Amino acid sequence: MDTLFNDPGLHASFLSGANATYIAELYERYLDDPESVDETWRTFFAELRDGAEDIRAELRGPSWSRPDRHVIGAPDPDAPPPDAKKKGKAPTAEAADLSQDTIRAHTLDSIRALMLIRAYRVRGHLEARLDPLGLTEPEPHPELDYHSYGFTDADLDREIFIDNVLGLESAPLRKIVEVVRETYCGHIGVEFMHIQYPDQKAWIQRRVESELNRTAFTDLGRKTIMQRIIEAETFETYLHRKYTGTKRFGLEGAESTIPAIEQILKRGSQLGLEHVTIGMAHRGRLNILTNVLHKPLEAVFSEFEGNSANPEDVQGSGDVKYHLGTSADRDFDGKTVHVTLNANPSHLEAVDPVVLGKVRARQTQIGEDGRAKVTGIILHGDAAMAGQGVVAECFALAQLVGYRTGGTIHIVVNNQIGFTTNPKYARSGQYCTDIAKMIQAPILHVNGDDPEAVVHAARVAIEFRQTFHADVVLDIVCYRRHGHNESDEPAFTQPRMYKRISEHPTAREFYARRVIEAGLLTRDDVDGMLASYTERLDAAFKAGESYRPNQADWLTGTWEGLEAAFGEEEYKQYVTAAKRPALDTVFKAISTAPEEFDLNPKIARQLKAKAKMWETGKGIDWATAEALAFGTLLLEGHPVRLSGQDSGRGTFSHRHAVLIDQTDERKYYPLKTIRDDQAPFYVFDSPLSEYAVLGFEYGYATQDPMSLVLWEAQFGDFANGAQVIFDQFVSAAEYKWLRMSGLVVLLPHGYEGQGPEHSSARLERFLQLCAEDNMQVCNLTTPANYFHALRRQLRRNFRKPLILMSPKSLLRHKLCVSELSAFEDGGRFYRLIPEIDELVPDEAIRRVVFCSGKVYYDLLQARREQEITDVAIVRVEQFYPWPKDSVQRQLKRYPNAEVVWCQEEPANMGGWMFVDRRFQYALEELHNKARRAHYAGRKASASTAAGVARTHAREQATLIEQALSWSLDSLPQPFQRPTDLSRVN
C-alpha cells in the first residue's frame, strides 16, 4: 500500500472502474471527517490537495445551487435556478440521484487533475528541456500524460475545479497541462517533493508555480545580464587567443554561472548577507576571480606571462594561477558583501569542508545573526559531485550541531562529462545531484543557455537559503567548449558531442538575439558592449607587462598583528607557563560537579583524583594537563574548539570534557564554567568522517587564528582517510598560498598489541611532509610538555599546524605524570628531554639511546629493573623543526658513547629514516668517534604492526634488549637483503 501512495503512476492506474467510485466516496468522507478514513488515505489526500480548500464545498448541494460553470454547456451560473420560483416544489428523487452522481464525477475529475499536477511536481523535471546541446532529449514519461489519469482529448477544453492550486480556481484541462509544463518542464526542472518538511516544500511550490512569484526582470536587469555574459565569454576567448594552448580551464559553455553568482550576492545582500566564502575547482576560476571578485585583469595577464613574485612577497605565488584565491568587497546598491574565493588544489571537492569550516568560524565570530550574515557557495563539477566521497561527508555535516552553517548554496557547473568519461559511466543515478537528496535539499536544474532562467533559479536558491537556513542546489546544465583543458582534444573520445558544440551558438549569441528581438537593445548596442570590454582587455594586457603585485594582504582582518614565520630558531622560547591563581581556578572547575548532579561513580573517583593532584601538586596526568591548557587559554580570552570521533569522553575514557547525569542525561561542561568572563569552550563528537571533519577544522582555524582549534582522530591511523587535507592544505598551504593555520591534530599512537589498525599514526608520513618550517610534528612524553605545546600555539605571534602523536597507554601510566611546578612560572616546552636518572659519569657512558614517545618508558623501566647505569636515554619530543642544537649538545655530553636510535615502529616507518642522516651529519660535524647512529627496533614491514599479541610482546621485548644490551654488530640491519635468495619470491 505504501508503494501505491508514493508513486503517481500507480495512482493513475488505480483511478479506473469501480476504484474511481470508491476513491471519490472515500474523498467525500475525508472532507467531512479526515479521521473517518485510514491513515494512509488521509496522507494521500492531504498531499494531493497541498493546501487546497474543500473542493467538495463548491460541489455539494442540489444541482441548481452548484456552480456548474465547471461543465461545458452548463446553464449560465448567473441565471435564476430553474426550479427556484416553483413554490413548494422539491427536486425529484431522480434529480437528487443525478445530482449526487454529478458531484461524484466532478469530485473524481478534481482528484484526477490534482494527481496530474502532483505528478508534474514529482516528475516534471524528467521532461524539462535542460540540455543546451539537445543530445539528451527527455523521453515522455507516462505519469505526465493526462491520458494516464482517465482523461481523453475530448476533456481538454472542459473546466475542472482545482481550488486555487497553480493559482487557478478552475481551468480547462488544456490550461492546467500548459501551466504545469511551463512550470516544471521548461528550462528549469525542480526536484523538491522528496523534502519532508511541509513548510519548505510549500515555499518552493509557491515560488515556482505562481506567476506573481517569478523574477520580474527589469530592462536594466536584462542589460546587466547581457553585460555579464559578454564579459564572461570575451574574457575566455581573449585568453584563448593570446595564450593558445595554455591551460586555464575556461568557463566557455557555462558563462551564465557569472550572472548567477552575481544574483546570489545581490539578492543575498538585500536579505542580510554580508560575507560569502566561495570554494571551487579550477574550471572557471579565472573568470570568477576577474568578473566576480574583480581581481585586476593586469594581474591575471602578468601571471600568464610568468611575472609572479616569490611566496615571501605576495599572496599565492607558490601555485598555478587557476588554484589561487583572493577576497574583495562588493557593493550592491549601498550594501557591501565581503567575498572570499578560497585557494584550492586540483583535488576536486577537497575545498568543500574547508569552506564550511571558514563559514562556521566567521559566523561564530559575528555571534547573533551569524547564520543570516555569512554563507558559503561551493561550485562543483558534475563528475566530481557524483564521484568524490567528501561531498557526501560534507552534506552529512549540514544539520549537525557542531558543524552546521545555516545552509550552503551548491552550484553545479554541469559539463555533462568528466575528463573523458560520459555520465553513464560516472554515476548510477539520474542526476549528479542525487546525492543532495540525502539531506532533502531542493535541487534546481536549469538550462545554461538561458541566462534569465539561471538567474531566476539563483534568486530562488538564495531566498530559500536565507529563509530556511538549509542547503540548496543549483544545477546549471551546460557544456565545455574545449576539452578538459585548452590543450586537450575532446573529439578523440566524444566526437558527436564536440561536433555539436562546434556548431552550437554561444550563450552570448543566444541572449543577444533574445534581447534584440524584445527591442531592449539593438545589434549595435550589443556590438558596442563587446567592443568596449575588448578595449579594456587590450589596455590591461599592455599594462600587465609592467604589472607588479602589491604586498600580500593575508595578515589583515582576524590575522591583524600576527607575523609570517619562515625559519623558527630552535633556541627561541615562548612564555607558555601559567600563573598559579589561573591554574587553581581551572583545577577547581575540573574537579567539581554541580550539586544534585548524578555522577557516574567512576567519574566521581576521577574528580577526587584531580582534587588530590591540586592539593599535592603531584601526579598530574595527561588528561588533566590538557584541561589545564584549555582552561588557562580560556581565561586568557582564547576560545577552544575540539572535535573528533568521541572527543567529549575521549576514545580511551580519559578526557570526560562532558559529564552526563546518570538519571536524566543532562550535560555539564566543566571547562565552560570556570569563570563568567572566560572565552567559549566547544567540544563536539563528530560524525564518523575524517576527510570532511579535518577539512572543516582546518578551515575554521584559518578563519580564527585566536582560537585553539583541535581535531582528534579516534585512532591515529584513521587519519589516512583525510590524507588529501594533510597533503594539500595542512602541510603546504602556507607556501603555496601564504595561508597559515594553527590547527592542532591529535593522533593516538603507540604499540600496545592492538594490531595493524590501532597502533601507528604513521609518523613517517607526516615527517615526509616536513620542509621549510611548514609545521610541527611532536611525540611527547610528559603531560607538562603537552600543556606547553598546546599553549605555545597561541602564545607566539605566528601560527603553525601542530601534529601530535598523542598517547594511549601513557594516559594512565604511573610514570607519565608531571608536577604542578612544571606548569607554573619557570616551566616551558622542551624539544628534547635529556637523561633524568643518576648514572655513571658522562665520559663513562657507553651508549646513548635516542627515542621518542611511549617506548621511552619501556626503556626506562627495563634499564632500572636490570640496574644498567652506563646507558643514557634521551627523548626527542619534537621531530620537526628538528632540534639540531639540542641533539648536538647531548652528543657532546657523551663523547665516548655509541649512538642508537630506538623505536617501536618498523624500520621503514616511524622516525628512523627521518633521523638517520640528521644524526650522521651531526656526528660528522662534531668529529665524534661514533660516525653514525645505529638502529634498534622492528625490521622493515609491509604492515604497521603484528596482529598477534604474543608476537607483539616478543618483538617489543627484543627491541628493548637491542637498545640497552646488544652489541652494535648484533643490532639489526633493517634494509639488508636476505642472504637466502631462495626465499625471495
Automatic annotation (TrEMBL):
GO terms, biological process: glycolytic process; tricarboxylic acid cycle
EC main group: oxidoreductase
EC number(s) stated in the UniProt entry for this protein: 1.2.4.2
Domain spans labelled Transketolase-like pyrimidine-binding: 620-813
Keyword line: Glycolysis, Oxidoreductase, Thiamine pyrophosphate
Function: E1 component of the 2-oxoglutarate dehydrogenase (OGDH) complex which catalyzes the decarboxylation of 2-oxoglutarate, the first step in the conversion of 2-oxoglutarate to succinyl-CoA and CO(2).
Protein name: 2-oxoglutarate dehydrogenase E1 component
Organism of derivation: Roseospira navarrensis
Phylogenetic classification of the source organism: Bacteria, Pseudomonadati, Pseudomonadota, Alphaproteobacteria, Rhodospirillales
